[in-house]
Amino acid sequence: MKVKVGDKVYQCEPGQPLMVILTAQDRFNINHMHPNATRYAVFDDGDPSFQTDEEKFTWMDEGVINEI
User: Fold this and answer.
1) CA 48, 58, 13 angle in degrees (round to 5)?
2) Does residue 1 form part of some domain?
3) Theoretical Cys-Cys bridge with 26: which of 22, 36, 47, 68, CB 3.0 to 4.6 Å?
């Protein structure tokens, strides 16, 4: 498992466990993802850095295309 926070990708390694804390809505969304989907991201609606879907998908792609 890998987790991207901001511009840094973290990978589970010895001495560096990862935990993702999911809300009930996160679990629902993940359960209903397309079978081929490999990423799930959450954006704050008030964040001016990510106002369009294109900006969000660009961020999701940056630095992780070869990570999957």
Assistant:
1) 105
2) no
3) 22
